[in-house]
Here is the input.
Amino acid sequence: MTDMVRLRRQAILKQAAGCIELAELLVETDKPVPPSAANLLRRALATLAELPAPERAAPAAQLLAGEALRALGHWQEALEPLRFVAEHDPQRLEAWLGIGWCLKRLGQLAEAIEALRSGLAAAPQQPILHYNLACYLSLAGNAEAAVEYLTQAISLDDRYRDLTEVEPDFDPIRTDPRFQAVTHVTV
Here is the structure.
């Protein structure tokens, strides 16, 4: 690959990533995507389409495509590129998180849980994977496992303890004494 081709590829990936990043600043979780954000996300997808087919099929481009589709709310469509990335670059935790996000919103909570477990097998020291898995297990009514994974997340990064206060996914287990024990610091 010549320097010019490589620079062009990097510029396309950077531009698409920038559009996605800007769009995600405008998107609120589980609310309709504002038109301005949708335009940026569609621009990111159009920018990625400028890559030659082999470059478009690379994990870096597939991850951006999956993220753009996920942010647009095209969850089923986003699964293909995200699963490709998870298979070909399993250390990319963004792919596992995106798969879980999409499956949860498609009403496939058991599959979302399994996806995050697979992500943890590939990247066991990532607190965000532990945390999200705890959220999904809470929603599934498995308080014991949710608290176990939440404990792991907090032990890896104590900042996750503070997030539990506002995370609605923990509402099903919020009164469980095990949950309270792990989320409340006693002095």
Summary: The two ends are 59 Å apart (CA to CA). Residues 3-26 form the longest helix (24 residues). The chain has a mean pLDDT of 94. Residues 1-108 form a domain with the Serine Threonine Protein Phosphatase 5, Tetratricopeptide repeat fold (CATH 1.25.40).
